[in-house]
Each structure stands twice: as structure tokens, then as C-alpha cells.
């Protein structure tokens, strides 16, 4: 009888233990799945830039501070916090950011120019007295054309150097009807061979040895293309080739001899396929591995591997929330920053997708 009771007690204990383990297993299964599905990663938005009509330019200064230019403000990130500059800080325009050899920050829009004195911005004048102390190579500004001005303003570019401020006109005939075709649309870019490249609506000009190279409709093979030319970005890659971003016909590449319609060659022009295309290109950059990156309007960010001839398109599903990618900037750490509009955000590629960091 005692043996029987002992056996029964043992059976009850084993059954109860088995049931308990089974129940525990069910509870664990029911909890882990919802927890995994409901897990959300907290996004730090404290360093996101104030909303504005796009981040148009980025610059890293000699101290490692990042500067962001927008239509409504200039912001500086010192590694810890964002600081904003506007009219209260002496700045009543925004535009292209520049850094001279002394580390001084300049900002200009083709009409006005301001110098940062460490605390606020001071307006300077475009004249021969505007010099960058000790800057032998100079920095370059485009002359703007007022859309409301009635007088003809000669299109060209300023060189701010250690001696004076020199204005160099583009090789164009005076034409009141077409002066806005040469309104500044890109920041000046210095190539590997010291050619100064500048973009306008209708043409790209390259200043070399006191003479200009011009790349326009004819050089781009667009004589029969009725779409308006709109040069929005220029870039010189590690091989010295000039890349041109046109908001209408896409990417063109000048190798020193001829200009290639890169977008058409890869069947990525408007109407070439039913998916995203490259015909509305705005910005270009090259990463440390030699991949080319393109920012577009409404077609996200593109990566092109010249070794494999492969493209990858990143869109909103990949973290690119902005409608337009205005500029791509490479930092001293060789990181690419992608600046956009709607929303005004700055993104960084994490290897798979894009994270908004500013």
C-alpha cells in the first residue's frame, strides 16, 4: 500500500511538473512573439535640423564643426549641439558655404557675401578690397543675376585671393533675353588639374589657364532634346572625370575629350522604364570605395558601382524620406552626408539603408 501511494505521488509530481513546463512554454511563446513584434527603436530627434525649404550646402571647418546652409538659416553643429544663425546674428542671406586657408567661414548667394568672425556674420562687399588674408589659391564665388533686375548683369565668377577680388566674365555675348540661362546654379568646384568648374542653367564652364571650357547643349548631345537644361550639381571624381547632374536629363560625364550621356547609356532616362529613373539628378559624390552616388528629385538616392556596372536605388522604404536630395558632402572621416528637402534632413548610409542624423 505504501509502495502504491509512493508510486501515485511520484506520478502526480511528474504529471504536474510536465504540465507546468508545458504551460511555461506556452506563456513564453505567447510573450516573446508580441514583444518581438512590438519592439520599437527610439529615434533621437534632438539633433534634427529645423524644418525649412531644404538643406542646400554642407561644410566641415578646420575644427571639425559641421555647417549647414538653408534658405532660412545657417546652423553649426559642434559635436554636441546645434547653433542657428539668422538676421539677429548679422546674416540676412543664405547660400553657398566656403572656407579659406585661415579657416574663416564665408557665405554668399551671388549678390551678398558675409564673413564669420567667430561670433556673428559681418557683411562684406564684392570689390577689390575683399581679400582672404594669406589665401594664395583663393576661393571662388559666382555672380548672381537678379530675376527682378532690369539691367544687364554680366555673368561670371569672382576669385577671392590674397591680393584682391578679381571678376572673370564667362565667354558670352551680351544678350538681355538669355542672361538668366547663366544664373548660378552650383557652387564652384576645383578639379584635380586645378580647373575651376561652375554650373549655370544652360552650361557648365571650366576655367583653366585663363581660358574657358564650355559644356552645353551641343556637347551634351541635346540638340533635339526640347527639355530645358538645368545644371544642379557638378563633381570631379578620383580619376579626374567631371560628372554633371541635370534636373531634366540626368547624369553626364566629361572625360576631358567628350561628354557622355550616362543616364541614356544605362537606360535610366525619362520614359526608359516604368520604375524610378535618373533623369532629375541634383547631386553627385564618390565614396572611398569608388562608388558613385546620385541624389535626385522624387527618385531617392542612387548608388553606382563602376566595377560591376550595377545600380542600387534607395527610396523612402530605405529611410530616404526627403523628396529632393540637394547635396552630398564628404567629411574628413570620408563619410557621405546626404542633405534633402521635404523634409529638410541630413542622412547617412549605414551599409543597408539610410538614417536621419540631422
TrEMBL record:
The keyword Cytoplasm is assigned to this record: no
The entry's keywords: Phosphoprotein, Signal
Protein name: Diguanylate cyclase
InterPro entries in UniProt: Reg_prop, WD40/YVTN_repeat-like_dom_sf
Pfam families: Reg_prop (PF07494)
Gene Ontology molecular function terms on file: phosphorelay sensor kinase activity
Alphabetical list of PROSITE patterns matching this protein: PROKAR_LIPOPROTEIN
Residues making up the signal peptide according to the UniProt record: 1-22
Amino acid at each position: 500500500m505504501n509502495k502504491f501511494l509512493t508510486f501515485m505521488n511520484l506520478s502526480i509530481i511528474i504529471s504536474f511538473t510536465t504540465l507546468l513546463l508545458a504551460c511555461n512554454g506556452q506563456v513564453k511563446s505567447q510573450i516573446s512573439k508580441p514583444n518581438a513584434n512590438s519592439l520599437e527603436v527610439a529615434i533621437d530627434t534632438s539633433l534634427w535640423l529645423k524644418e525649412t525649404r531644404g538643406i542646400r550646402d554642407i561644410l566641415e571647418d578646420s575644427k571639425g564643426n559641421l555647417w549647414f546652409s538653408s534658405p532660412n538659416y545657417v546652423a553649426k553643429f559642434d559635436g554636441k549641439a546645434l547653433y542657428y544663425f539668422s538676421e539677429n546674428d548679422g546674416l540676412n542671406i543664405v547660400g553657398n558655404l566656403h572656407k579659406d586657408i585661415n579657416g574663416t567661414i564665408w557665405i554668399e548667394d551671388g549678390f551678398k557675401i558675409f564673413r564669420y568672425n567667430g561670433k556673428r556674420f559681418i557683411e562684406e562687399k564684392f570689390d577689390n578690397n575683399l581679400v582672404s588674408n594669406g589665401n594664395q589659391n583663393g576661393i571662388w564665388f559666382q555672380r548672381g543675376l537678379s530675376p527682378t533686375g532690369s539691367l544687364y548683369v554680366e555673368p561670371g565668377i569672382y576669385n577671392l585671393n590674397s591680393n584682391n577680388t578679381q571678376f572673370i566674365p564667362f565667354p558670352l555675348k551680351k544678350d538681355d533675353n538669355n542672361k538668366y540661362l547663366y544664373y548660378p546654379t552650383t557652387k564652384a568646384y576645383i578639379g584635380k588639374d586645378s580647373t575651376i568648374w561652375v554650373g549655370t542653367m544652360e552650361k557648365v564652364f571650366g576655367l583653366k589657364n585663363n581660358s574657358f571650357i564650355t559644356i552645353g547643349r551641343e556637347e551634351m548631345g541635346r540638340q533635339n532634346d526640347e527639355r530645358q537644361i538645368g545644371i544642379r550639381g557638378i563633381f570631379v571624381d578620383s580619376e579626374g572625370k567631371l560628372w554633371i547632374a541635370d534636373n531634366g536629363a540626368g547624369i553626364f560625364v566629361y572625360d576631358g575629350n567628350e561628354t557622355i550621356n550616362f543616364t541614356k547609356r544605362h537606360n535610366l532616362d525619362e520614359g526608359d522604364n516604368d520604375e524610378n529613373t535618373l533623369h532629375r539628378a541634383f547631386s553627385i559624390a564618390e565614396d572611398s570605395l569608388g562608388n558613385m552616388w546620385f541624389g535626385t528629385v522624387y527618385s531617392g538616392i542612387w548608388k553606382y558601382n563602376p566595377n560591376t556596372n550595377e545600380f542600387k536605388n534607395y527610396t523612402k522604404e530605405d529611410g530616404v524620406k526627403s523628396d529632393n536630395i540637394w547635396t552630398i558632402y564628404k567629411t574628413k572621416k570620408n563619410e557621405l552626408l546626404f542633405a534633402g528637402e521635404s523634409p529638410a534632413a541630413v542622412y547617412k548610409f549605414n551599409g543597408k539603408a539610410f538614417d536621419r542624423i540631422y
